[in-house]
What we know:
The protein is mainly α.
Amino acid sequence: MRTVHHLTLPRALHPGAWWLWALGMAVAASRTRNPVLLILILAVTGFVVAARRSDAPWANSYTAFLKLGLVVIGVRVVLQALLSTRSQGNTVLFTLPQIPLPDWANGVKLGGEVTLEALLTALYDGGQLAVMLCCIGAANALASPRRLLKSLPGALYEMGVACVVALTFAPQLVTDARRIRAARRLRGRTRGSFRTTAMPVLEGALDRSVELAAAMDSRGYGRTAQVPKSQRRITGLCVLLGLLGILLGVYALLTDAMEVPFAASALAIGLLLAVSAMAIGRQRVTRTQYRPDPWALPEWLVVCSGALAAAAMITAAARGVEGLVLPGPLVVPPVPLLPVTGILIGLAPAVVAPPLQAPRRELVTA
Length: 366
C-alpha cells in the first residue's frame, strides 16, 4: 500500500508575458475593421481574463475598459452623425436640425441628414479602438503593476522605484482623507472645508516622504557604479535611435505608411538598439532582486500565442486576404480562415498559464 500526492504548485505568471500577449492581440485588432473579427478578439481576451485573473483590486479593470470602449464607440457615432455628409451613403435614417456655419467653414456641416452607411462606418472604426483598449485592459487585469515595475531592467530601476512609490502612496492619500473625515465626525464637526481636510493629508504625505527618503538612503538607493563617459554617451545614443526605430516601425505597421518588410526591419532594429542600451546601462546600477519572477515555459507559450495572433493578422493583410477591411458598410462581414485561426490561438493562455489557486490533492492508492 502506498500513497502518492499529485500537487502542482500554483504561481502567478510573469507580468511581462501578459503584457506582450495583450499587445499582440491589440496589434491583431489594429489590422482589421471587420466586426466579426473584432468581436472574436474581444471574446478571446475576455475568456482569458475570466480564466486567469486573480482576486486583486486591479483584476476588475477589464470591466472598466469595456465601459470605456462603449463610451468611445458612442462618442464616435455621435460625432459621425453630427458631421457626416450625404456623400458617405444614400440610406437616410433621420434628419437632425442643421446649424448654419460661417463662410470660412465651407464644406463642413453640423447636423442635417444622417445616413446608415455613415453610422456603420463610425461603429466599425470606434469598435476597433474599443477592442484595442480592451486588450490593454486585459493586461491590466492579469498583471500586477507592482510586479511589472519590479521586473524592469536595471537601466530603468530608478524610474521603476519612483512609479512603485507613487502607486503605493496614491491610495494612501484617499485612506488618510477618509480617516480625517471620520475623526472630525467623531468630534461632532460634520461640516468642514477643503482646507481642513487637505492640510492634514498633505502633512501626513510629507512625513511619510521624509521617512521613506531616510529609509531609501540607508539602503543605498541612488548610488551608482562608476562608468566611462564614452559608455554613457553610447548608451544615450542607442536609447535615442532605438526609440526612433520603434516609433517608426509601429507607426508604419499600424498605418501602412511603408511596406511591411521595411516597417518590420525598422521595428526590429529599434528593439535591438533599445535592448542593447538597457544591457549597457544596467552596469551603472548595482542592485539585487528579492524573489525575482521566473520566466519559464508557460511565459514563452503565452507570449508566442499573442505573437502568432498578430503575425497571422499582419500576414493576412500583406497577402490581401479579403475580409479584414470591408468594401462597404452594408456588406455582410466575411469570416476569413487565417485571421480567425490566429485569433483563436490567443486562447492558449487560458490553458497553458499556471493556475492561481492550488488544485485539489488526488489520493492514489496502489
